[in-house]
Amino acid sequence: MTVKAIVENYQFTPLDLQQNYGENMLLFIGWDHHTLFCSAHAFVVSPKQTLQELIDGQITAGFSQHPDFENIDWSTVQFSLNRNILNADFSKPLEDLGFDHKSLLRFVTPDLNGFKNAHV
Questions:
Q1: Does the structure show a pLDDT above 90 at 60?
Q2: What share of residues in the chain are helix, strand, coil (percent, to 5)?
Q3: How buried is residue 94: exposed, middle or buried, by Cβ count under 10 Å (0-12/13-18/19+)?
């Protein structure tokens, strides 16, 4: 949807610029077919942390409330990063896997389709 400012020459400096996060970056993470979470969650992460550390920390904190979470087999999870398939190497730092400021990580858990298979 196009948005038009109500004043001429509307200019501003966004507050979510990389420079405002120091050594960290903003990362959006969404769990497909689990609409209990209506949109991707936003996390501040270190680009030096590994994918496994991301799962153990931020992803667990953000998504473990869902009843399906404890049944995830992370070896079968399909990841996409910024709409491209991500070949997940759990031991590599995020920056080496192509993550950058305001990236979108999405994950699909085969055979887990939300509460009572309702994609919720």
A1: yes
A2: 20, 20, 55
A3: buried
Residue whose C-alpha is closest to residue 111's, from 79, 62, 72, 66: 72
**CA angle (114, 115, 116) in 5-degree steps:** 110
Q: Is 30 helix (H, G, I), strand (E, B) or coil?
A: strand
H helices, E strands: number in the chain: 2, 5
Question: Which region holds residue 111: left if phi is over 0, alpha if psi is between -120 and 50, else beta?
Answer: left
Task: State the Cα–Cα distance between residues 15 and 70, nearest whole angstrom.
Answer: 35
Contact indicator for 54, 24 with CB cutoff of 8 Å: no
pTM of the model: 0.88
**CB-CB contact of 52 with 91 (8 Å):** yes
- The span from the CA of 97 to the CA of 103, in Å, is 11
Element (H, E) at 63: helix 60-63
pLDDT at position 114 is 80
